[in-house]
């Protein structure tokens, strides 16, 4: 099946520092990648959508200067949380939608990254 | 307003029974609907996709129905097992939302032995 990996799975950082999270599609090419945020017992909230080689489209209320997204290749997207604050602590999940093998409609998710900002 | 709603109350059933989860939506025109399973601290795992012109889809012990008149999808797990205990999310991709996948809040299923 389609596999999406995320790294790191868990990160603790100090307030004011930046954290980078990587998302990779391992066995398919992802034309579009998505970044979600999830609070405990809540649904997934879409933060932004990125297409390979172009700028990300951010959802309303999401600060693009704070959450920097790069989709440099068909298998890699990164989310950088800049100048992190405790309120940025959350579970961040990436997702990829891909090309070929009938996968253009299915969306596959990474295992998530738990970010804790002290 | 646009809404996608799942039963927010946890569903508790006995092993061997059929679990039925509901997903209702309003003011969307879904091209298709997907069901995911999510375990605590993990990302969602894709289970099934059903398109707007399909009434039913099956995969092993799973069955999904899609009624665009009622604006509802039902997700069934037959012969449920304790290992099926998880949160189940429905998500729709709407023709008027730029292709984004919009999620319901999920229903927590607990299967007791």
Descriptive notes:
The complex is a heterodimer of chains A (118) and B (113). Chain A has 118 residues and is an all-beta fold. Helix content of chain A is 0%, strand content 54%. Chain A has no helices and eleven strands. Chain A has strands spanning 4-7, 10-13, 19-25, 30-38, 44-51, 57-58, 67-73, 76-81, 90-98, 107-109, 113-117. In chain A, the strands form two sheets. In chain A, strands 2, 4, 5, 6, 9, 10 and 11 form a seven-stranded mixed sheet that branches. In chain A, strands 1-3-8-7 form a four-stranded antiparallel sheet, with no helix packed on it. In chain A, strand 5 (44-51) and strand 6 (57-58) form a beta hairpin. The termini of chain A are far apart. By secondary structure, chain B is mostly beta strands. Helix content of chain B is 0%, strand content 58%. Chain B contains no helices and eleven strands. Chain B has strands at residues 3-6, 11-14, 19-26, 30-38, 45-51, 56-59, 62-67, 72-77, 86-94, 101-103, 107-112. In chain B, the strands form two sheets. In chain B, strands 2, 4, 5, 9, 10 and 11 form a six-stranded mixed sheet that branches. A five-stranded antiparallel sheet of chain B has the order 1-3-8-7-6, with no helix packed on it. The radius of gyration of chain B is 14 Å and the shape is globular. Chain A binds chain B through residues 2, 4, 6, 32, 34, 42-44, 46, 49, 91, 93, 95, 105-112, 114, and chain B through 32, 34, 36, 41-46, 49, 89, 91, 93, 98-106.
Main features:
heterodimer; A: 118 residues; mainly beta; four-stranded antiparallel beta sheet; B: 113 residues; six-stranded mixed beta sheet; five-stranded antiparallel beta sheet; globular
């Amino acid at each position: 099946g389609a596999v999406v990996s995320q790294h790191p799975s868990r990160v603790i950082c100090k307030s004011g520092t930046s954290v980078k999270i990587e998302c990779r599609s391992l066995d398919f090419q992802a034309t579009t990648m998505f970044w979600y945020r999830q609070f405990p017992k809540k649904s997934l909230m879409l933060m932004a959508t990125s297409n390979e080689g172009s700028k990300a489209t951010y959802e309303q209320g999401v600060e693009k200067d704070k959450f920097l997204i790069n989709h440099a290749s068909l298998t890699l997207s990164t989310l950088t949380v800049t100048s992190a604050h405790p309120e940025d602590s959350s579970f961040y999940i990436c997702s990829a939608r891909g090309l070929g093998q009938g996968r253009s409609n299915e969306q596959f998710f990474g295992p998530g990254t738990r970010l804790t900002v002290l | 307003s646009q809404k996608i709603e799942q039963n927010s109350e946890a569903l508790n059933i006995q092993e061997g029974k059929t679990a039925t989860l509901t997903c209702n939506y309003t003011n969307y025109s879904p091209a298709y609907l997907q069901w995911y399973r999510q375990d605590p601290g993990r990302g969602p795992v894709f289970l099934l996709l059903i398109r707007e012109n399909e009434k039913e889809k099956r995969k092993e012990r799973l069955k999904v129905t899609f009624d665009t008149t009622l604006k509802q999808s039902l997700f069934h797990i037959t012969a449920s097992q304790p290992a099926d205990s998880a949160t189940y999310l429905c998500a729709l991709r709407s023709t008027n939302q730029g292709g984004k996948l919009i999620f319901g809040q999920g229903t927590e299923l607990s299967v007791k032995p």
